[in-house]
Design a protein that fits this description.
Layout (H helix, E strand, L loop, with lengths): L3 H8 L4 E5 L12 E4 L11 E4 L6 H14 L3 E5 L6 H10 L2 E5 L5 H16 L8 H18 L3 E5 L4 E4 L8 H9 L4 H9 L2 H7 L4 E3 L9 E8 L2 E9 L6 H42 L10 E7 L6 H14 L7 E4 L2 E7 L11 H11 L7 E4 L9 H16 L6 E4 H17 L7 H12 L3 H10 L4 H8 L3 H14 L7 H16 L7
Parallel strand pairs: 2-3, 3-4, 4-5, 14-15
Antiparallel strand pairs: 1-5, 6-7, 6-10, 8-9, 9-10, 11-13, 11-14, 12-13
Helix pairs in contact: 1-9, 2-3, 4-9, 5-9, 9-12, 12-13, 13-18, 15-16, 15-18, 16-17
């Protein structure tokens, strides 16, 4: 399933903007196709997004919205500035089909191509299959650019990741070879480009950028920005041993417009694929449904730290970390506002990307820069039916880390099971308990400034050892004995029963973690 909001987000603000939400689940209708509005005919049907090609003014736009609402269509797309006309916005809010704004210089044909690519990916999510054609097209475009420039070419996204490259790379330099082999621009080359102001120019302008020769034999470059709706999507990089003639630069700029559509489609389909995968994983973690695309056994890890931002910021952070360290299709999803990763857990010392051993190694490296990052993993999940239990365990551990009762880093259930057991018992013991010595001792402490509760907790923690308890409290052993006698005078205190000692310690733990009593 693909919601209208997901489709708009996938195509990006360079093309589409949601003006008013429509009807559907939480005001977000599902979309399974896009159609062009035909004059005099019904405007779409349920699940269809109607494209208002040829709509000339507010009156025609309102009429199209009325027809779309009568047909139950998911929404209507109109070009700017018509989509922002007050009469049109008012009609959309009243009639309740969603209203989506399209950038004015965008072709309707391109919108159909991009939207249907994203929709096809959502409804037939075969991993890696849907974007294969787009990647093939990118390599063909790279070869076309190389023919125009008569020089080797790479196509890169806005993060300096190599998307495709042409032939003729034997005429390139070592920096280009490292870029292709590593699938991204080497750090020393990026430093040179930043020093030359290349990325600043690419982000702000559509003009070609000429880069002088750099260190370690780096040859000059001609860079053609790739933009759509003012958004910088990527670049065409030409190794220019000699200056590229102006007419060829213009042809490369024309090719950049074609490349922009392919990059938009690639991004849209990748975004939709991530949402579909997240939905599948969410179902697996909630209900034990099939939906994990890698074989068991698995681990479910709750991921946290790094930011106090919203879930989207946390997801972006961990997605970037995963991809940076080689997990190119990270299995991430959220359940109840907690971010989870589903990892493989094979036996042995292997650290394949996306495995539990890999994540432990990654955390060691990233925590050198951010000590708040952590991953809390539940027990092994050998089958889909075990995933909800593993998720619940991971969430419990994450709660303990977030509250400071466990340290950050990599936390495994088998290493912190005792904290989980105590926490579960603490929650159960946290309610009011009739009778027992704790209420009496607590009242005495509050009225007289004594430290009976902390004394009792220390005595229980040291198994009744007088010297160890006194040292922990920083008092003389005789002072401790006096306190114990006074406590027995205040309330009936039977410390000979193992069951009562356990019950007392659980009650004291519950009081220690209760914000209402922590500072008493």
């Amino acid at each position: 399933m693909l919601s209208l909001t997901d489709l708009v987000d996938a195509l990006g603000p360079g093309l589409l903007r949601l003006v008013t939400a429509g009807t559907g689940v939480n005001g977000d209708p599902q979309v399974h196709d896009v159609v062009l509005a035909e004059p005099g005919e019904a405007a779409g049907q349920p699940g269809e997004l109607v494209l208002g090609a040829g709509v000339a003014g507010p009156r025609d736009a309102v009429a199209l919205l009325e027809r779309a609402a009568a047909a139950g269509a998911a929404g209507v797309v109109l070009k700017a500035p018509l989509a922002d006309d007050p009469a049109v916005v008012d009609a959309a809010g009243r009639l309740r089909p969603a209203l989506v704004e399209l950038q004015p210089d965008t072709s309707w044909t391109h919108v159909v191509w991009l939207a249907r690519g994203a929709i096809d990916r959502a409804y037939a999510p075969q991993p890696g299959a849907a974007d294969g054609g787009v990647h093939d097209d990118l390599f063909a475009l790279a070869d076309t650019a190389a023919e125009i420039a008569d020089a080797p070419v790479t196509l890169e996204d806005a993060r300096s990741r190599v998307l495709a490259y042409s032939g003729r790379q034997d005429r390139a330099d070592p920096a280009r070879v490292s870029t292709i082999v590593g699938r991204r621009v080497p750090a020393q080359v990026i430093a040179h480009l930043r020093a030359c102001g290349v990325f600043r120019s690419l982000a702000r302008s559509s003009d070609p950028v000429h880069v002088p020769a750099g260190p370690d034999g780096m040859l000059p470059r001609l860079v053609i920005p790739v933009r759509a709706g003012g958004e910088w999507l990527g670049s065409i990089w030409v190794v220019a041993r000699t200056p590229v003639p102006p007419d060829r630069v213009r042809r490369l700029a024309d090719l950049a417009s074609v490349l922009a559509l392919h990059l938009l489609r690639l991004r849209a389909e990748a975004g939709v694929a991530r949402r579909v995968l997240a939905d599948q994983l969410r179902g697996a973690l909630r209900n034990g449904a099939d939906g994990v695309p890698v074989p068991p056994p698995w681990r479910v890890a709750a991921l946290g730290g790094g930011t106090d931002g919203d879930l989207r910021q946390r997801l972006d952070l961990w997605d970037a970390i995963a991809r940076r360290f080689g997990w190119h299709r990270p299995l991430l999803t959220d359940v109840d506002d907690t971010l989870f990763a589903v990892l493989t857990d094979p036996p042995g010392p292997r650290r394949d990307a996306g495995s539990m051993a890999w994540l432990r190694n990654v955390l060691v490296q990233v925590r050198a820069h951010d000590r708040t990052l952590y991953a809390a993993a539940g027990g092994p999940a050998p089958s889909p039916a075990d995933l909800p239990r593993a998720r619940s365990e991971a969430a419990e551990l994450a709660g303990l880390v977030a509250s400071g009762r466990l340290p950050a880093g990599t936390v495994l259930l088998e290493d912190a099971w005792d904290a989980v057991v105590v926490e579960r018992a603490r929650r159960a013991a946290g309610g009011p308990v009739p009778g027992g010595p704790v209420p009496d001792l607590r009242a005495h402490d509050a009225a007289n400034g004594t430290a009976f509760l902390s004394t009792l907790a220390a005595w229980l923690d040291h198994f009744g050892d007088t010297k160890g308890t006194a040292d922990a409290l920083g008092v003389h052993p005789n002072t401790l004995r006096h306190r114990l006698r006074r406590m027995s005078e205040v309330t009936e205190l039977d410390l000979s029963s193992p069951r009562r000692r356990l019950a007392l310690r659980l009650q004291l733990t519950a009081l220690e973690e209760d914000p209402a009593t922590r500072n008493e």
